[in-house]
From TrEMBL:
PANTHER family: HEMK METHYLTRANSFERASE (PTHR18895), MTRF1L RELEASE FACTOR GLUTAMINE METHYLTRANSFERASE (PTHR18895:SF74). This is Methylase. Residues 13-22 have a biased composition (Basic and acidic residues). PROSITE patterns: N6_MTASE. Keywords: Methyltransferase, S-adenosyl-L-methionine, Transferase. GO terms for biological process: methylation. It comes from Paraburkholderia monticola. One of its GO terms (molecular function) is nucleic acid binding.
Amino acid sequence: MTSPATLTWPEADGPRTARWRSEAAVPPPKRVVVADDRTTADSAYRLASEGTALLWHGDFQNARQLLQAVTRRLERKPRKQGATPLDAFNLHRQTQSQRARTLGMILIPLDADYGIALRRAPDVRQACIEAYGPASGDASVVSLRELLGLIGAHEWRKKGVEIAALGERIHPHYGVFSPVRGEYVDLVARTPLPSLELAFDIGTGTGVLAALLAKRGVRKIVATDQDSRALACARENLARLGYGEQVEIVQADLFPDGRAPLVVCNPPWVPARPASPLEYAVYDPDSRMLLGFLNGLANHLTPDGEGWLIISDFAEHLGLRTREWLLAAIDHAGLSVVGREDIRPRHPKASDQNDPLYVARAAELTSLWRLKAR
Ligand SMILES: C[S@@+](CC[C@H](N)C(=O)[O-])C[C@H]1O[C@@H](n2cnc3c(N)ncnc32)[C@H](O)[C@@H]1O
C-alpha cells in the first residue's frame, strides 16, 4: 500500500506536516501560507489563482465567506463562448477544472478525530466518517470546498430524496450517484415488465432501480456495482425499504453470473474523461460501461429476455456521440431494439438560459431502450 500523501506548511515555530485528503485525487499544493481573519478576499484570490494554498487559522465562518468572495471574483471573469456545442462543452469543462483548482486552495485543518479546532466551526465528525471512514488517528488537511461538499452530502443522506414512483425516500451516500433527477426512474416505473421472476440491475448506485423493480413485484433482483460506497449505500437503502431479502447486492464489473429475463442498466451518459473519481457516475471515458453492457447483454439474457438501457441523448446534442454510433453499437452487439420510451428532463438547468450548455440541456431526452438478442 502506498502511504497517504502529506502536506507541509510553515508555522511560526517551524514547518508542520499532516495527512492530505482529496477525494477528487488532487495532489497536495506545493506552496502553502498560513491565513486568518486578516486575509483579504483580493489577496486570497491572487494567491489561490497563482496556486498558493491558504491554510486557515481564523474563524470558520469567515473562511466560508472568503471562499464565496473568491467564487464571485472567478465568476466575474468573462467566459469564452464556444462556436459549437462541443466547443462550449470543452470550454465549460476547462473553466470548471480551473475553478475547482483555485477554489480548492483554501484549506482547513482536521484533528485526528475529524474535529475542527477553529472558532465557529461546525461539528463535521459524522460527515467525515461517512465520507472517509472511521478516523485514522492522524491530523489531516482538506480543502474547505471538499469539506462543504461532505457536509452537503451528509445532509442529503439524512434527509433523503423523495422518489415519487417508489413512494419512498432514497438516501444517497457521499460519492454515490443520487437520483435527484428522477425522470429516468419514471421510465422504469411505467415500462411493462417482461417477467416477474428475476432481474439484474447493472451499476445499482443507491439501489433505486432495484428497489423499484422489487416494488413492482419482481421476485428476485441481483444488483451489481463496482464501487464500495455504492454497494454499502444500496444495501442500506434496500434493507430500510424492506427489500433486503428480495434484492441481492454483489460487487461485480457489470454483470453477475447467469442469465435473467430482464437486465436493467443506467450507465454514465457522457463519453468524456471524468475530472475526478467522483465523476465516474456521469462520465464514461470511451463509453466503456455503455459498450460493456451492450456487448455482454446477449450472454446474460434468457431467450426472449429484455435488456433496458436507460440513457440520455445529452452527449448527442453536445457532439460527443451520434445516434448512428449508438444504433451501430446495439447492432454490433447482436441486439435489436424492440421498443423505446422517452421522457423530458425536468431539472432546473434545462430552462436556465445562462447555463453554457443550455442548448444541449434544453433538447435533452432520456430514453429507455428495450433491447433483445437477435
Ligand atoms: C449513472 S449511475 C446509475 C446508478 C443507479 N442505477 C441509478 O439509476 O440511479 C452508474 C452506476 O454504475 C456504476 N458502475 C460504473 N462502472 C461499472 C461497472 N463496470 N460495473 C458495475 N457498476 C459500474 C457506478 O458506480 C454507478 O453507481
